[in-house]
Amino acid sequence: MTPPAEHARRILVVEDEPHLAAGVVENLRAEGYEVDSVADGRRALEWLQRQSCGLVLLDVMLPEVDGFTVCRTLRERGDNTPVLFLTARGDPADRVRGLEAGGDDYLAKPFHLQELLLRVRAILRRWDWYQSASAAAGLLRFGGNEVDFRAFRARAWNGMTQELTEKEAMILKVLAERPGEIVSREDLLERVWGYDVFPSTRTVDNFILRLRKRFERDPADPRHFLTVWGVGYRFMTEDET
Amino acid sequence: MKAPRLFQLTALALVLVSAVEVGWWLLDQHRFAVDKVREMHEVYEQQVVAAQALLDAKVPAAYVHGLLPSVIVTNQHAALSPQVDRQLIAEEQRHIAQYAWEGSFFIIALAACIAVIARALRAEARVIQEQESFLALVSHQFKTPLASLQLSLETMAMRPLSPEHVRALIDRMLSDLARMERMVTQILESMRLDRGRIELRSEPVDLGGAVARVIAGCAERAAKERITVSADIERGLQVRADPLALDVILRNLLENALAAVAPVGGGTIAFSARQAAGGEVELTVRDSGVGFRTGDAARLFQKFTRLHPGGGSSHYGTGLGLYIVRRLMQLAGGRVSAQSAGAGQGASFVLTWPAGASRPDAAPGAADALEPPARGEHS
């Protein structure tokens, strides 16, 4: 389930520590967000099945079902609601686990209130952009592929249906907005992730490889997702040859 | 590498070299003994040859034997005395046996040294690993109240707040600080227990009085969390324990129960004690809190176990409280167990002290109690 536009400013806080939950909820409300909170993973999944929101603030160490599992379950359901992990374990391995589970960002406890609010704003802004851009141009056709940005789904040139992850769809959207132009890796990182969530721009390369596998007839000899050495990528809607 | 470890490794290397040297020395001594006996044998053989030459030169046999006592003469034929031969063999064996004994002693001593050093090195590596994981866990536990404190303070710094809101934030911060203080106390207690630094006294302690003191200490917190704490303990019931350790045990049990009841929005905690058959004293702490899955009963008492039974009970725990309870009960010769019908069903903890200090007249099994009867009117 993808959040409808009217729920874009609604946030679900999933935190089992009562003081932290109360503090975060109060501050987000003071910023004008509509906020709900639950104290364990199972209730979070139940809530998200019934309702929708623009962002989930998700603690990792939760009773019943842990945060990573909640996020993974959400993605398996096809729910692309952005997730910001909050956790006391700040080591890089944990961070990577969170992002692999489908999280959008990761904030280690104890955190600065300002930083939390900035990140929330950044995630919602990127999401806003994606949604309004998808509303304006919901379909993309290139080389026999057809991508539906709103449904996060595509039909590839070989007739296969492809379910896109939120990040794949966002990268494709950024590239499709500027067909034929060079888009730098940093630009992609900034537009899709916001800032240095990932250790390197190599992550972008991995996502491009995934897009090539989905949409190129010969991923080893790409016609649409072209690498511009040392700079970034160029997206071509039609074959150059 | 740290200096002591370098020292241990150097000592280990020296001892290993010494062991090899002792082995080589043993082999050398064996060879030396064999060589020496062979040389002596050759000298005696030369004497036999000389004696035979004298005999052949018609020197009288008696004179030859007088000159060379190791040689015996029969029918003008010289030969080595069998007694000398036996002596030589005995000499060789004595020599070898002496070094075999001495050598084995050294080898055993050196092997013992190697074992001691290797053991120390292994133990040290384990201690370092335990300390590292302990530190990682402890710092992780502190991050939650720290995050809450920081959030409250930054909220106060950033926003204009009503006096009521400020008051609520201050209460929240005080509670976070109290939580951190409890964590520090528990960490220090468990560290002292791990190092075996605690020396426990063993004296009769009035159980009812100890329970009442601990309940009074937590009364304010219990009231705030809407938890009723009650005690039903027979007057004069005693256990044989260290009064301070008993306090720590009861306080940790009560805090554990408070943490279990608070997330369900209040409830009850009941202490009850009785004298069991055989003179043992049994104290039961029953709470109406979040409970735990039946299979988790044993894990509860392990270090850093914090179960998540469904109500967010992780709020107050360090994962050390019940570990401390179990260690102290073990040191006092008692035991502790936990039961719960399942998540959300409450839990009960049963502590059992061995017979010895309880009212000796209360049960026949307690007749050998060391203390005089506290009250003698019951039969």
How would you characterize this protein structure?
- The complex is a heterodimer of chains A (241) and B (379).
- Chain A has 241 residues and is of the alpha/beta class.
- Chain A has two domains: 5-133, Response regulator (Rossmann fold); 160-235, Arc Repressor Mutant, subunit A (Orthogonal Bundle).
- Helices cover 41% and strands 20% of the residues of chain A.
- Chain A has a five-stranded parallel beta sheet, with helices on both faces. Chain A has a four-stranded antiparallel beta sheet with strand order 6-7-8-9, with no helix packed on it. A three-stranded antiparallel beta sheet of chain A has the order 10-12-11.
- In chain A, α2 packs parallel to α3 (67-76) and α6 packs across α8.
- Chain B has 379 residues and is of the alpha+beta class.
- Chain B has three domains: 3-128; 141-194, Helix Hairpins; 203-368, Histidine kinase-like ATPase, C-terminal domain (Heat Shock Protein 90, 2-Layer Sandwich).
- Chain B contains eight helices and nine strands.
- Chain B has helices at residues 3-56, 61-67, 82-158, 163-194, 207-217, 219-224, 243-261, 321-331, and strands at residues 71-74, 77-80, 203-206, 227-233, 238-241, 267-275, 281-287, 335-339, 347-353.
- In chain B, the strands form three sheets. In chain B, strands 4-6-7-9-8 form a five-stranded mixed beta sheet.
- In chain B, α3 runs antiparallel to α4, α4 (163-194) runs parallel beside α8 and α7 (243-261) runs antiparallel to α8.
- The A-B interface holds A 16-20, 22-24, 26-27, 30, 39-40, 61-64, 88-89, 109-114 and B 140, 143-152, 154-155, 158-159, 172, 175-176, 263, 308-315.
Task: Describe the structure in brief.
The complex is a heterodimer of chains A (241) and B (379). With 241 residues, chain A is an alpha/beta fold.
